[in-house]
Amino acid sequence: MPIISKCQMSGLFAVVLLLTACEQTPPDHRAPVTLPLYTQGDDVKGAIIYREACGQCHQLNAGLNKKGPQLMNIYGAQAAELEDYTYSQGLEQSGWIWDAKTLDPYIADAQKAMPESKMLSNPMPDAKERADVIAYLSTLRAAAPITEAAAQ
Questions:
Q1: Considering only CA atoms, which of 79, 54, 21, 62 is closest in space to residue 136?
Q2: H/E element holding 12?
Q3: Contact (CB, 8 A) for 28 and 62
Q4: Of 15, 68, 73, 88, which one has the greatest count of Cβ atoms within 10 A?
Q5: Can you list the alpha helix ranges (DSSP code H) found in 23-147?
Q6: Is the dihedral of CA 126, 49, 135, 69 positive or negative?
Q7: Of residues 68, 63, 112, the one with CA closest to residue 84
Q8: Degrees (nearest 5) of the Cα angle 115, 120, 124?
Q9: Using alpha carbons only, what angle is made at residue 107 by residues 105 and 109, rounded to the nearest 5 degrees?
Q10: In Å, how far are 45, 89, 110, 119, 135 from 38, measured between CA atoms?
Q11: Using CA atoms, how far apart are residues 137 and 70, in angstroms rounded to an integer?
């Protein structure tokens, strides 16, 4: 192959790479929360507990998963629904909806509630603290992120 053809091929390859790099996959997100706020706990105290006990592994922004999935719009959502996070098989097959009934035992001791869980947090035995965290999680509500395609 003549040298000019190799250069042309390299240039074409570079253009293709640059063009595909412009396409961003929008972050996965959950649908807006439809359940009413959980009022059996104190959401302000729950926010503090969340930062200390959960914030290392969970973000609150779509597309920003850490060790655990982001938790925006988690309250009332189907378990294991984000496409951009890899869940345990047990959680994927659970059929759970994240509400007080499922969140309470899971936050209390994830390994006991779901033996195959990837969540390796310390158990939270205090029922009042769990209620506070659930109240806080129920306040995490945001519209779907706007993507370039949706904005046009």
A1: 54
A2: helix 3-22
A3: yes
A4: 73
A5: 43-53, 89-92, 100-108, 110-113, 127-139
A6: negative
A7: 63
A8: 90
A9: 70
A10: 13, 28, 20, 23, 5
A11: 11
